[in-house]
């Protein structure tokens, strides 16, 4: 509940995913998540076009 409330208060409208299993779960394995935070840039068709980008690259 606190997480969802914080997302709403900060107006974070993009998709957020969380798990209590750390890196031992299907999502982490499928997307090769080995560190947090991890980011993906997804196009309007749902295709990942970049990952682990920051600042000007965004």
List the helices and strands and how they pair.
Layout: H1 2-9, H2 26-30, E1 40-42, E2 48-51
Antiparallel strand pairs: 1-2
Strand content: 5-15%
Number of domains: 1
Separation of termini? 30 Å
Run of helices and strands: HHEE
Helix content: 10-25%
Low-pLDDT windows of residues: none
SS class: alpha+beta
General form: globular
Architecture overview:
This protein has one domain. The chain is built from two helices and two strands, in the order ααββ. The model has no long low-confidence stretch (mean pLDDT 86). Strands 1-2 form a two-stranded antiparallel sheet. The longest helix is centred in the first third of the chain and has 8 residues. The chain has 58 residues and is an alpha+beta fold.
């Amino acid at each position: 509940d606190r997480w969802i409330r914080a997302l709403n208060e900060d107006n974070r409208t993009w998709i957020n995913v969380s798990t209590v299993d750390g890196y031992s779960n299907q999502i982490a394995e499928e997307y090769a998540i080995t560190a947090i935070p991890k980011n993906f840039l997804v196009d309007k068709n749902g295709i990942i076009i970049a990952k682990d980008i920051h600042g000007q690259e965004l």
